[in-house]
Amino acid sequence: MIHIFDHALGFREPIPAGDGEVPVFSFGANMSLASLKSRGVPVSDDREPIRATLDDHELAFNLAPVHIAAYEGHYGNVRLKQGAKVHGVVVWFPPAGLRELDTREGPSYDRRWTQVTPYATSAAEPIKVMIYVQTQSFPGVSVLKDGLPGRRYLMTLVTGADRAGLLPEWIEHLRSLPYRPYEQFDWDDEDYKRELLQREYTADEIIASHVSRDPLLVSILGVVILLPTSLEPAELNVFEDLTLATATRVAYEPPPKDALALTAEQRGFVGSILCSLARFPGARIMGHLPSYCEFWPTLTQYS
């Protein structure tokens, strides 16, 4: 599930005119170039990221998405705190990359100019950069409330920081933070098993439902789920099955090529998203794809 937004609620500084690349201070998932590229966001091919700190700020997981079907936890933000530092990297984006990032960062983020201090030396000159930060709540979209990041999201930060060569103390700080663990779908629930087996769908039916939206169906790990038609069309990817697209978001592991050969991390994250979709208000399991037994071999006894 990839979320794309066509308008911003937060304040966005104008993108500088011309073809010049724009520096952005990344402290969260965007520290990982692999994560950016996996989401189709163009980055500079000529400039290496620069390690830096945002002074007098702290990292907070206080972005709580609202009414989101594929929920994994809270997302990262920065807020003022005298004497604190947030470590990250400066990544350069072409204008097209910054516009693409705007659509994927969520409408409640501001994109503003600020200054960061490079790691190089204590006397290094500050760099003027852009930063995504949420400064207010937007009811119905995203609210400011402290919470736990999901395991995938936090591991993306840890891996991005490690690969960027940020200070070991910062990486250890990230590793020490609490997070929401992956969830396992409860197939001991007899209602779920009955719903799973009530009907077999084809991949074409799933894709067609994204156009007709009557009903609106998605499938993941072979499970077909009805979602409320109030969801924005742009929130859904038109895939035969969301399994591979969701697993790809575990950007710190090699991109999956086979939905039946996911790593433990990828399967854990995909399973968590299945749990989130199934319990979303108004959602319910409608049936299965023909391949469901390959995902859930222990359920073959019920077929």
TrEMBL record:
Domain Gamma-glutamylcyclotransferase AIG2-like: where? 72-136
SUPFAM superfamilies per the UniProt record, alphabetical: Gamma-glutamyl cyclotransferase-like
One Pfam family for this entry, by name?
A: GGACT
Q: Which domain of life is it from?
A: Eukaryota
InterPro entries in alphabetical order: AIG2-like_dom (IPR009288), GGCT-like (IPR013024), GGCT-like_sf (IPR036568)
Transmembrane parts of this sequence? none
Protein's name according to its UniProt entry: Gamma-glutamylcyclotransferase AIG2-like domain-containing protein
Q: Which organism is it from?
A: Perkinsus olseni (Perkinsus atlanticus)
